[in-house]
């Protein structure tokens, strides 16, 4: 009876210590953390490191004290021994998880490390600690050695592989993504098979979350990014320039040779004069100003409105400050199509901001489309074609 009486006193002391820590010490620690300018202690409170560390105190008191108040071999002694080990294991797991949360938060605040997909690795460590804690708790409940529990689980390996398939594949994929630097938070990625096109907002152990440009969220298995291809636009964002690659479909019936009057008019355009002077020197002065009939013109080289407009497009792009002059810049013809002759503008805007990029691209094509009639050219429009 004396054992029960002493155990009741010990239990009351443990409960009292826990109540004192939870209702007095913990609120005081939170108040101090708020008042101090240091943000690290705020993080310790937010991630529950302090509360879980305080939980250790009554657990340690129970584990260390019950052998002095109970006789060894008593059923209550064995019960307290198992309960104490379970509580100690759970408390250790919870505290270690909270510490990992703090490390993860500090990692996200680091300028160099915040974009690295480390969350999956932290989750993998937590999963491993959870498995170890579960085995230790189970061994206490069934009163068997952890080795026996592991050997039993070995027989269930096939079932466990099926249950934790995504976690295992995600763990391996997360390590590969991190070591190869394939993906970071904030990257713009495009995965057509998942209809995902947007910015990466989270990388976990088993999945990658992408906020699409229409504000929907796509959740993609991490291992799918390793086993299949996807497009990452980070290189474009880091280069500082975004590609403009769009064609004007020219009505092929509007393509012709230039007249002497048109050549004289275009000579007054500053950006075109060097091109025209060079071409006229190449083909001879008389070739560009001949007024012979079309059949006679086929005997020599002559300037065309499409070629002159192509040179004008390139010169116009060279004159714009919004176009990156140190990147690829050209105007080229593609193969003729039933819907006209594609005249492609290939250049890079000197920005990667979406709205600004679209404005630059629209301004360029607004101007070039409006300039086409000056060269005697017109866009192909199906509705205006004669059957």
Largest sheet, strands/sense/barrel: 5 strands, antiparallel
**Strand/helix succession:** HHHHHHHHEEEEHEHEHHHHHEEH
Strand content: 5-15%
In the predicted model, the low-confidence regions spanning at least 5 consecutive residues are 286-295
Helix content: 55-70%
Mean pLDDT: 81
Distance between the termini: 109 Å
Q: How many domains, in number, for the residues?
A: 3
Radius of gyration (CA) equals 37 Å
Figure out the total of helices: 16
**Major sheet: order of its strands?**
4-3-2-1-5
Instruction: Give the overall shape, derived from the CA principal axes.
Output: elongated
Give me the count of strands: 8
- Derived structural class: alpha+beta
Draw up the topology in text:
Layout: H1 2-35, H2 40-46, H3 49-69, H4 75-109, H5 119-142, H6 146-155, H7 157-163, H8 165-180, E1 188-191, E2 196-203, E3 207-212, E4 217-221, H9 222-227, E5 231-232, H10 234-239, E6 242-250, H11 260-266, H12 273-283, H13 285-289, H14 294-297, H15 305-319, E7 330-333, E8 341-349, H16 354-371
Antiparallel strand pairs: 1-2, 1-5, 2-3, 3-4, 6-8, 7-8
